[in-house]
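Key result, reporting period 2: structure in, sequence out.
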């Protein structure tokens, strides 16, 4: 059994791919301790300053920005940096440009485009995740491949879902989230 995916990689699609892989590869989850760790540290440090302990209003006025503004700015920075990485990689890396061809078969995942030909066996593939737009297949936590469902040629997503489940067993989190 084999499944072919053929698509033209556009900046918009590539941005969604990078965001999906980042989200499911837990890249951003590793950084969330900063979102809550720094406000906790700042709250404790502000509590030690005698002038901040004169009233609850003064104390809240000093620590509230760390609990409201800082997380919002951090989230915006993550969104901006993800878009920036996606835009730069599609401009500078020829492997992300143009017509992309992916094939899943009994041997593994095959990747083809104008400048790259790669074969990844099932033994090297660690897990799979399904999103509403993609099948994401991970070689390791930091390296994932996206297969856009809209690019599937001559088959249904349910067929790919069954095939991935048969190859990756319990390592496949399938069913669009």
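The corresponding designed sequence is given below.
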């Amino acid at each position: 059994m084999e499944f072919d995916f053929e698509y033209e990689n556009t900046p918009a699609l590539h941005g969604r791919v990078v965001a999906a892989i980042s989200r499911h590869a837990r890249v951003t989850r590793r950084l969330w301790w900063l979102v809550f760790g720094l406000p906790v540290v700042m709250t404790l440090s502000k509590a030690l300053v005698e002038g901040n302990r004169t009233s609850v209003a003064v104390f809240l006025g000093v620590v509230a920005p760390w609990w409201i503004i800082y997380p919002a700015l951090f989230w915006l920075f993550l969104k901006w940096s993800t878009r920036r990485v996606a835009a730069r990689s599609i401009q500078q890396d020829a492997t992300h440009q143009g017509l992309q061809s992916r094939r899943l078969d009994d041997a593994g995942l095959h990747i083809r485009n104008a400048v790259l030909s790669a074969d990844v066996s099932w033994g090297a593939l660690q897990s799979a995740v399904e999103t509403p737009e993609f099948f994401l297949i991970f070689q390791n936590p930091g390296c994932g491949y996206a297969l856009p469902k809209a690019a599937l040629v001559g088959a249904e997503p349910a067929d790919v879902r069954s095939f991935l489940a048969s190859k990756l067993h319990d390592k496949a989190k399938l069913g669009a989230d």
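Residues 29-92 form one domain. The mean pLDDT is 85. This case is discussed further under Risks and Mitigation.
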